[in-house]
Amino acid sequence: MDLILGAAIFFIGFIQAAIGSTVSGGGIIAIPALMALGVPPLMTLGTIRPAYLAGAFVSGWRFKVRGYLKLKEALTMIVPAFIGALIGASLILRVSETFTKYLIAAVVLVSIILLLVKKEAGVVKTKKKHSVILLVIIGFGTGIISGAVGIVGGTISMVALIILEGFTFKEAIALNNVRGLGNQTAALIVFALASFILWDYAIILMLGSIVGGIVGVEIAHKLPLKMLKPIFIVVAILLTIKFLFF
């Protein structure tokens, strides 16, 4: 591997983690970028997993330091996300993606509409106590999506945490990143066993994601909640377009 290619891969890892830690949806950059470098689709979905996992760990730690994350709520989501992702990653290796793709895109678009209708959603914390059952369901359901396609699951997870459980955007981002520890570990296992990981690319992506995760949390911390909401909506729309058509 030459220096230019290595630098490009590092930058892809950095950008995906920075975006993922700020508003979710870092896969909108990483997945098409890896495919543009000639990595086949399924190999791309596998190769990006170690970077997702590294980014989730680092950003989760930084969000905890910044005071946006409670370990009890985080731990409630990790195991269901792990189980869901095992199912999702296994399914994507065996079934057609077409129906699932349009169903997931429809869910994202409905989620965006709900955020637009509920003006205070994500900006004002509306619940002091949170349902363990709902957190488990959100972790499991979005774990399946994340395990299967690697993107979009985080977007749906964040909207569910905001609309159903009343978290602010920053709290939802923090929880979503820790949820990623469960689903990305599971997906990594499935893709590794199926030999769908290019480990030389994966290690460089991980290094970029570690730096990007730290930077992304600091950006999220400094951005006002009222500014995060429109940024998240724009990213979610772009993510859906990419998911459907590219």
Describe the structure.
- The chain is an all-alpha fold.
- The protein has one domain (3-245).
- The protein has eleven helices and no strands.
- It has helices at residues 3-22, 27-36, 41-47, 49-66, 71-92, 98-117, 132-149, 153-165, 169-193, 199-222, 225-245.
- The radius of gyration is 16 Å and the shape is globular.
- The chain starts with a helix and ends with a helix.
- The model has no long low-confidence stretch (mean pLDDT 84).
Q: How many beta-strand elements?
A: 0
Radius of gyration: 16 Å
Structural class: mainly alpha
Distance between the termini: 27 Å
Q: pLDDT average, as an integer?
A: 84
Q: Number of helix segments? A: 11
Number of domains: 1
Low-pLDDT ranges: none
Shape: globular
The percent of residues in helical segments reads: over 70%
Could you give the order of the helices and strands?
HHHHHHHHHHH
Oligomer: single chain
**Biggest beta-sheet profile:** none
What is the beta-strand fraction? under 5%
